[in-house]
Target: Fur family transcriptional regulator, ferric uptake regulator
Amino acid sequence: MKRRNTPTKEAVLKLLAQSGKALSHEAIEKAIDIPINRATIYRVLNQFCHDGTVHKIVAEDGKQYFAVCMKCEGDAPQEPHFHFRCTSCDSIECLKEPVHFSLPEGYEVASVNCVLSGLCSKCSSHNSTCENE
Amino acid sequence: MKRRNTPTKEAVLKLLAQSGKALSHEAIEKAIDIPINRATIYRVLNQFCHDGTVHKIVAEDGKQYFAVCMKCEGDAPQEPHFHFRCTSCDSIECLKEPVHFSLPEGYEVASVNCVLSGLCSKCSSHNSTCENE
DNA sequence: TTTATTAATGCGACATTATTGCAATAATAA
DNA sequence: TTATTATTGCAATAATGTCGCATTAATAAA
Model:
């Protein structure tokens, strides 16, 4: 199916790229300057995923987050990497850290979903040494 | 809050232990011989998690799966490990493979949720060499 | 520039997962 | 045997994500 350029797609992709993080549909809906329907956001995001522009992460909260593929070089086919979810500022970021593992005989991996949760550097330092902003 | 032994708890824990896998509330409800309400299953499972008897995994389908902590020795405080979700037989198992990673300065990890998806050895061999059962 | 094609969108409805309040039940202590 | 209160079932609810359908609009064709 041929793609068309629309304000919606541009806005979503721009937002994802600028934020540099993985965002939920809700975060996108809030952060974006034009009103976009929830169903549309999902359709756009899934299309991006299908086209390889964006990748999806499912966190332990069971929600889907979407991030551009990737600040890094970009030509390599996107090595699986860890994601970090800060439970304080509720954002998810892609880590440089690649995911390494070995599997028992006969197993075939199709996708990798690895999320570490806790406090990012900002929030952990806030908690220990600073006041909240 | 003090715990009480009930047929429900016994049945759920026994099922999880016997299966050796991570099960969803739905799988538990189906597999168990006595009828148990969905809400009750979740409450029991979350209680087990809280008590450290069971751990929770969230797969890329966004669903929660629960597994006993663990066939292995059991005295060590349960090292984070990979989980494998077979998309064919739709089961999740704990892998021996531990999760290793390093984090940027200042980050603090509270929980680890790593799920690999694909075909387990049984299903991948069925696909390539055998008929379906 | 105008028209035709069909991808994209908004809306409402829906399926699913998970949680919560409340009254009834039952496990344990007294 | 009785009292206490953890546990359970039920119904209601919140939230996430998907789908069908009619309308709109991006792009190609005339």
Helices of chain A lie at 7-19, 25-31, 38-51, 121-129. The two ends of chain A are 47 Å apart (CA to CA). The CA atoms of residues 30 and 51 of chain A lie 24 Å apart.
